[in-house]
Amino acid sequence: MKRLTLTRFMIEEQRRSGVLRPELRLLIETVARACKTISHAVGKGALGEVLGSLGSENVQGEVQKKLDVIANELLLEANEWGGHLAAMASEEMEAIHRIPNRYPKGEYLLLFDPIDGSSNIDVGLSVGTIFSVLKAPADASGRDIVEQDFMQPGTSQVAAGYAIYGPQTILVLTLGTGVYEFTLDREVGSWQMTDGPLQLPAGTCEFAVNTARHEQWSPAVRRYLDERLAGVNGPCGKDYNMRWTASMVADVHRILKRGGIFLYPADHRTAGKARLRLMYEANPMAFLIEQAGGAATNGVERILDVQPRGLHERVGVILGDRTEVETVTAYGSVSV
Ligand code: FDP
């Protein structure tokens, strides 16, 4: 079967919509190429001596895995010299990374979580890379990029996606004109379109949530989940399934393909303390989910409308099937 490659898809998109600029296309190609290298490292596992922790902590106070650091370096190195970027920001780095003066600079800002779902690395389960692309503000031309230039709501994203390193290596991408899935042909080394435009299936009775956090949820989130756990005898009148991979990329990918809802609400007892990062996780995933016909909120407002206050800001996340997300959000969650 003849399939569309990622390169051809983007060139055709560039011609068709006129919205996709060649610089953005080349930037996405570079990110996708780095994801191939990360996939290779992940695939080697213990044989590549890439498993385990480093003993260091990232800006979030989390222990860094070797692969977190390797993937971060690969993304920085691959994207530094192409001339499409003004700066980068990563979940693994406290400060923004400006493009060094020895390279030409472009107008885009790249944000990424190099390895998402790190607790899965050492046990051979799915992990992924999440990325988001913004445009530098118009007044940033000719001066150094500062952190404030990244403080744009998710609605400003011009592209977002993730790579998932699982049984297959898959890249899921949106340029704001639908969501497309590409599978890595490992022998040839090319990304081939295997699905899209993706439409999130409605009415799937499945939720993804870490139920061990039950006591930390707001009354609204507890009500929503307790009703579903009550199954066929509860107010929903049907049995639900629970799926939790502890890797947001894997859980969101399943929801994009099969439907259902993902929840990582904030801890209501500590004034909105949440786990997932707005800029590296919530925004790109919300963009993808909305482009596939779903919805994403922090329990109160649409994630893409949240005005960021800091690079590493955390946010409650409820995303997936539009009807389900609207139901839990209407219960009055305080999951900000
Ligand atoms: P991780 O920190 O292991 O990289 O990014 C946060 C995240 O993974 C998500 O991918 C995942 O959904 C969540 O943490 C898992 O959280 P729990 O440990 O509470 O299950």
TrEMBL record:
Residues 5-195 form the Fructose-1-6-bisphosphatase class I N-terminal domain. InterPro entries: FBPase_C_dom, FBPase_class-1, FBPase_N, FBPtase. It is an enzyme of class 3 (hydrolase). One of its GO terms (cellular component) is cytosol. Its EC number is 3.1.3.11. Keywords: Carbohydrate metabolism, Cytoplasm, Hydrolase, Magnesium, Metal-binding. Belongs to the FBPase class 1 family. This is Fructose-1,6-bisphosphatase class 1. It comes from Croceibacterium mercuriale. The lineage of its organism: Bacteria, Pseudomonadati, Pseudomonadota, Alphaproteobacteria, Sphingomonadales. The gene is fbp.
